[in-house]
Specification:
This protein is an alpha/beta fold. 39% of the residues lie in helices and 15% in strands. It has one domain (3-314): Arginase, Chain A. It has helices at 3-17, 22-27, 31-38, 65-73, 102-107, 112-128, 144-155, 184-188, 201-210, 220-227, 266-275, 298-314, and strands at residues 44-50, 94-99, 132-138, 160-164, 192-196, 213-216, 239-244, 280-286. It binds manganese (II) ion (MN). Manganese (II) ion is lined by residues 165-167, 244, 246, 258, 287. Pfam families: Arginase (PF00491). Mn(2+) binds at residues 141, 165, 167, 169, 244, 246. One of its GO terms (molecular function) is agmatinase activity.
């Protein structure tokens, strides 16, 4: 039996032992309802896969990432506890609502404008199920725009965006594509960026235009103390964290489309995440490209640990 199937059975056994009503278990499809029945969760991270890779300017492999990340989250080589001690097997910490069927929708001839709306609507559906909060598995970085739009619309106001990336992704329309993975943050239009090390003149001009704070790798050692003690989300609806796996140095995460040496270490990213003060309302982990990973799936494990620690940050 696959690990994921076995985990599904454990999930149902836990619900049974927690005296969740059998009528609810039989319906069984509504994760929000099941988590509420367990009681005691203020916020539960809910995986939502968005297997979209066609807005990449170079390679399209990120479309294959969500199942590889799930497999790595539940891989028997590690346990289900996060660094600060949350148990991912507890459905109040982490649950999963599956993938948006991106390819099937595209096969019906749906264009990108409508596809972005489908992604936004899917995120809103997750958020309707209190206490679920979306933790989105990319996909290329173009998905952050419809996800952040949905989170902000659903919460009724702006959120602070913490964006960790080798690239600012703020071209107005990269190669003419307004939905390009290199343009998602021009659409989002505001946020704080960390880890930038591949930036063009347009990237700097766009950041200035939108009032974005950028922290570059070349000055990271100077900014480290500040970035590892961020306080975000005050006066807005919360904090959104978008992690492009290529924010990491390729020594830590070779399985990405755009290999850019000189990045953050895995521990740098965890320090930023774990010390961040603020209400994290949603997030994404994007741009893992399984087609460029090592044979033993090292980057899948790296992406999975980013998801696990981000899940712990969201859940309470
Ligand atoms: Mn990037």
């Amino acid at each position: 039996m696959s690990t994921i199937a076995r985990r599904g059975i454990h999930f149902m056994q836990r619900l049974n032992s927690a005296n969740v009503s059998s009528a609810l278990l039989e319906k069984g499809q509504n994760r929000g309802e099941l988590v509420r029945a367990l009681g005691g969760a203020v916020a539960t991270s809910s995986l939502l896969g968005v297997p979209l890779g066609h807005n990449s300017s170079f390679l399209q492999g990120p479309a294959f990432a969500p199942p590889r990340i799930r497999e790595a989250i539940w891989c028997g080589s590690t346990n289900s506890t996060t660094e600060e001690g949350k148990d991912l097997q507890d459905a109040r910490v982490l649950t999963d609502v599956g993938d948006v069927p991106i390819q099937e929708i595209r096969d019906c001839g749906v264009d990108d404008h409508r596809l972005m709306n489908v992604i936004s609507e899917s995120v809103k559906l997750v958020m309707e199920e209190d206490p679920l909060r979306p933790l989105v598995l990319g996909g290329d970085h173009s998905i952050s725009f419809p996800v952040i739009r949905a989170v902000s619309e659903k919460l009724g106001g702006p959120v602070d965006v913490l964006h960790l990336d080798a690239h600012p992704d703020n071209y107005d329309a990269f190669e003419g594509n307004i939905y390009s993975h290199a343009s998602s943050f021009a659409r989002v239009m505001e946020g704080d960026y960390v880890g930038i090390r591949s930036i063009t003149t347009e990237g700097r001009a766009q950041a200035k235009k939108f009032g974005v704070e950028q922290y570059e790798m070349r000055t990271f050692s100077r900014d480290r103390h500040f970035l590892e003690n961020l306080k975000l989300g005050e006066g807005v609806k919360g904090v959104y964290i978008s992690i492009d796996v290529d924010c990491l140095d390729p020594a830590f995460a070779p399985g990405v489309s755009h290999i850019e040496p000189g990045g953050l270490s895995f521990r740098d990213v965890l320090n930023i995440l774990q010390n961040l003060q603020g209400d994290v309302v949603a997030g994404d982990v994007v741009e893992f490209n399984p087609q460029r990973d090592t044979v033993d799936g090292m980057t899948a494990m790296v992406a999975a640990k980013l998801v696990r620690e981000l899940a712990a940050k969201i859940a309470k």
